[in-house]
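Students often ask why inverse folding is considered easier than folding. One informal answer: many sequences map to the same fold, so there is more than one right answer. In these notes we will look at a single instance of the problem. The structure comes first.
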């Protein structure tokens, strides 16, 4: 059997068989299939498998971009599965372990598909499982969030289909092969096809303005689903399609690069501003999952080899630390029963391992060296700055504004995660959580693997992910390999941080004078509901005069395309309802008016 087909059939057959098995066997079989898939994808790096050909058409093949994406789909699927082996709510366990391997199969089929029909089919199926995972939520708003996800992702799938049909019209000799298409944006058909595929990529990745399903999904779905899809696999598929568009399918010019970079910068700043005021931890992480997509879009769409490599690097870094953060908060919720930051606090002593993993994830997403998030962002900034030297003055100003917005967004990310960490693990603990225990072994072990990757991919970024995985990928594109990646020395920086940390601990141990005071209201000890939570300071951001109106509009869904189109559709529907009251004479009048309009046109 063809190795690529075997690689896809293993999780596909596992998902089908799981439908008939008891839950313990579903877990065992899913774990085995994911482990075999991990072994196979590593073996593909040693020996490239033969394409799978059916009816003289290449259905599945593997190139450097597809192999790279498939590798991290499998790695993330394996780690998140470890977390999910114990702790998934009992009422959804059977459905979860039925959908899990099917989703892996569909996502791997997308990145390995060379045939357009196969690509469309499995892209749509991956969107279907995303919707089914959303239906597993137990909150009151879960059905609404699932419907919103289905409409946005399903609608973007229709644009993907139309875009690929237009590409076939432009290149009828391509025989539905995506690898044989190379279209210039020099006519209306190619421009429309580009926009349609861009809609599909942006909706899947969760980029502005098609991002609004992500925070709703994150808030109302099981944490395992959020870590598995919008934080990981969907991000990989969306940026994979964008990279494929810009390096294989279309030939774009500078203006298109700058437009996409601007959309990336808008994604960064709008989402991070919304994240800062969230009190639900999952919703906060959902907006940050959107914000980080902006950096990926800026890098991949830059047209510069260093920034492109940084965008691809940031794609995998994001899936690592964002999955870590979702799962860490999930462990807290499973022990306390709530992800509400107003109700949490002081859990660092009760859950020290979970706190450590969340801290590493927060430092990574905030771009603090020597963790992985810093290096990939730095590559994007450096590449974009290098690109400005080749541009005219007007374009330079345009690009520099985008860079400043992205850097400001990174600073706000740090501020937001100070809130997240303080509200969850620091501050004063409430009485009802005083006996909270550490997460089970499988949960902190999974987040520990992700935390270790955050550190390894930061300290050994050049030696491991860049030279082994990403630079060979960029060499296969027209951009080529970056000539210079800077003088950053993460190992030396890590040693410096360790020394500073040890000095600080010595000073603290020898000179610290800490006093704990009780809070009194009316001369008596304050109840828990009167304590100062870790979210109070950020209420001032919400009420800042220049931002208050913007936040009010955002909370009324004025910036949500889904809500705007829904309201417009309901308005049109209401007009038609009023126009059809069931009066025969009114319908005869409509016929007469319609007949007169036709006569005038003819």
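Output (designed amino acids):
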């Amino acid at each position: 059997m063809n190795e690529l087909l075997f690689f896809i059939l293993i999780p596909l057959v596992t998902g089908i068989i799981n439908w008939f098995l008891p839950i313990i066997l579903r877990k065992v079989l899913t774990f085995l299939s994911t482990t075999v898939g991990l072994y196979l994808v590593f073996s593909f790096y040693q020996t490239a498998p033969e394409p799978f050909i059916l009816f003289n058409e290449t259905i599945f093949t593997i190139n450097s971009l597809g192999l790279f994406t498939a590798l991290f789909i499998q790695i993330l699927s394996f780690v998140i599965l470890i977390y999910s082996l114990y702790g998934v709510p009992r009422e959804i366990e059977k459905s979860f372990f039925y959908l899990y391997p099917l989703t892996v199969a569909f996502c791997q089929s997308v990145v390995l598909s060379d045939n357009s029909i196969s690509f469309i089919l499995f892209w749509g199926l991956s969107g279907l499982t995303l919707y089914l995972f959303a239906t597993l939520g137990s909150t009151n708003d879960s059905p609404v969030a699932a419907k919103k996800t289905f409409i946005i992702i399903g609608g973007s799938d229709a644009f993907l289909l139309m875009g690929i049909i237009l590409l076939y019209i432009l290149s009828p000799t391509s025989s539905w092969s995506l690898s044989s298409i190379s279209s210039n944006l020099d006519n209306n058909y190619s421009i429309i096809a580009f926009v349609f595929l861009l809609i599909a990529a942006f909706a899947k990745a969760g980029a502005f303005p098609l991002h609004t399903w992500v925070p709703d999904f994150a808030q109302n779905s099981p944490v395992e689903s959020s870590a598995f899809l919008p934080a990981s696999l969907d991000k990989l598929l969306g940026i994979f399609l964008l990279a494929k568009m810009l390096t294989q399918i279309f030939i774009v010019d500078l203006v298109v690069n700058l437009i996409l970079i601007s959309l990336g910068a808008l994604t960064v700043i709008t989402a991070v501003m919304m994240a800062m005021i969230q009190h639900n931890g999952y919703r906060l992480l959902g907006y940050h999952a959107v914000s980080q997509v902006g950096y990926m879009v800026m890098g991949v769409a830059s047209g510069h080899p260093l920034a492109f490599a940084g965008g691809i690097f940031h794609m995998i870094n994001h899936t690592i630390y964002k999955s870590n953060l979702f799962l860490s908060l999930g462990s807290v919720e499973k022990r306390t029963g709530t992800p509400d930051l107003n109700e949490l606090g002081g859990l660092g002593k009760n859950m020290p391992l979970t706190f450590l993993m969340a801290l590493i994830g927060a430092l990574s997403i905030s771009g603090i060296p020597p963790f992985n998030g810093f290096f990939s962002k730095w590559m994007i900034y450096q590449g974009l700055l290098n690109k400005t030297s080749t541009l005219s003055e007007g374009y330079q100003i345009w690009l520099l504004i985008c860079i400043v917005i992205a850097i400001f967004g990174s600073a706000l990310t740090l501020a937001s995660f100070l809130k997240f960490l303080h509200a969850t693990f620091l501050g004063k603990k409430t009485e009802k959580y005083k006996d909270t225990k550490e997460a089970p072994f499988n949960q902190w072990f999974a987040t520990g693997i992700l935390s270790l990757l955050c550190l390894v991919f930061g300290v050994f970024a050049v030696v491991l992910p860049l030279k082994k995985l990403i630079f060979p990928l960029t060499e296969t594109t027209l951009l080529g390999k970056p000539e210079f990646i800077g003088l950053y020395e993460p190992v030396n920086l890590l040693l410096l941080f360790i020394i500073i940390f040890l000095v600080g601990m010595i000073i603290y141990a020898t000179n610290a004078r800490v006093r704990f005071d009780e809070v009194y209201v009316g001369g008596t000890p304050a109840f828990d509901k009167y304590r100062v939570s870790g979210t109070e300071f950020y209420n001032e951001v919400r009420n800042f005069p220049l931002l208050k109106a913007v936040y009010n509009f955002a909370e009324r869904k004025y910036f949500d395309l889904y809500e705007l189109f829904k309201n417009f559709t309901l308005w049109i529907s209401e007009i038609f309802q009023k126009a059809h009251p069931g009066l025969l004479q009114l319908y005869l009048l409509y016929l007469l008016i319609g007949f007169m309009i036709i006569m005038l046109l003819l």
